[in-house]
């Protein structure tokens, strides 16, 4: 699976002329709306206890298949640079990430994990870190500026020893990748059981991400030979319950080589269309997620402010209740003390102190049923009654103290900050999202078809 690759200058000619594509700019702007250090959506969400993840600026496409299936050759053809080593031998022994950047560079395992922090859990797989690498090239051919390829090790059966659990790592990467390209070559390894087992496991969770291709189709001989190989592969796949489905498609692909023409139908552009479709779907999903996250953050801020208002109301109620109980708790001993003092004073002394009219007023209160009942008690009973009232007063004071406990509330400055953040999300982020969606749709929809 070989062909001519353009020089780097030729590969970058379109980059110089075309600049950044609309989809690339939309994904970049969405990412910035999340990660801005001053007013990013992630930082705003953290203030109300909501955790958000920033969208990726590129899609991740994993290529898998048996060794010498043409995975690395396809990457070289797509980027139009010779990035990955190719050959009949098992050239790719680890996982190699291929992405676009400002200059040609090769990164090792630790640098790769720093570049792709969402892949850091790969460290938990024993032996994988030493077999991770990243190839950065400056090509902007096709849609490469929006794609990160993951070139996986060639899969073989038998006694082949891998330095890590390759099956588990591929299955884990399948959870994060947006598209999984499975290459079957016609040279005898297409029915590799390891490949089929992994494909079956991936299909259980991510069947919509899988795409199957018969690679190196130009080396399969004549058309009858190709049809026989495809029948064998399809039959083997259909033996697996999860893969036996309607609408199964496996285009034939190979790297076009002008010096070696072939009559075999080359559907390699189908791979490009699958990548293009995944990019478009990712842009839409990113814009939809931005809208949902804006709603989530807005609801969280609104709920926080509402809870704060409710807490302030509950605190006022608690203070009123506590003040009432405190007043009641102190009024009981004060009343008893007043009655005791008035009972010990002589009528003449009271007349001198409050006057005759005052005595008449006091007599109205001193002749109440409660007072008469208290006077009818024996001295011992009166003592017990006083002790009981004192305990009741003490209990009321304790209840008042407990009732005075209030909930923490936001400061005025914090409320204003939350209001500002809510306004920012509602007015700035949502407006930007709407504008980005309009720009995305304008690529394919006429202006008169849009309600602008």
Observed structural traits:
alpha/beta; 7 strands; elongated; disordered N terminus
Class of secondary structure makeup? alpha/beta
Radius of gyration: 39 Å
Largest sheet: 7 strands, mixed
Low-pLDDT parts are: 1-18
Number of strands: 7
The residue-averaged pLDDT reads: 76
Number of discrete helical segments: 14
Euclidean distance between termini CA atoms? 49 Å
| Helicity level | 40-55%
Percentage of residues in DSSP E strands: 5-15%
Question: Which sequence of strands runs across the widest sheet?
Answer: 3-4-2-5-1-6-7
**Oligomeric form:** single chain
Overall shape:
elongated
| H/E element order | HHHHEHEEHEEHEHEHHHHHH
Write the layout of secondary structure elements.
Blueprint lengths: L7 H4 L1 H6 L3 H14 L5 H6 L12 E7 L5 H9 L15 E6 L4 E3 L1 H7 L16 E6 L9 E5 L14 H11 L2 E6 L8 H14 L3 E5 L8 H16 L29 H77 L2 H20 L2 H8 L2 H25 L8 H31 L10
Parallel strand pairs: 1-5, 1-6, 2-4, 6-7
Antiparallel strand pairs: 2-5, 3-4
Tell me what the structure shows:
The chain is of the alpha/beta class and 452 residues long. It is built from 14 helices and seven strands. The chain has helices at residues 8-11, 13-18, 22-35, 41-46, 71-79, 109-115, 166-176, 193-206, 223-238, 268-344, 347-366, 369-376, 379-403, 412-442, and strands spanning 59-65, 95-100, 105-107, 132-137, 147-151, 179-184, 210-214. It has a seven-stranded mixed β-sheet, with helices on both faces. The longest helix has 77 residues, at 268-344. It is elongated and about 135 Å long. The two termini are 49 Å apart. The relative contact order is 0.11.
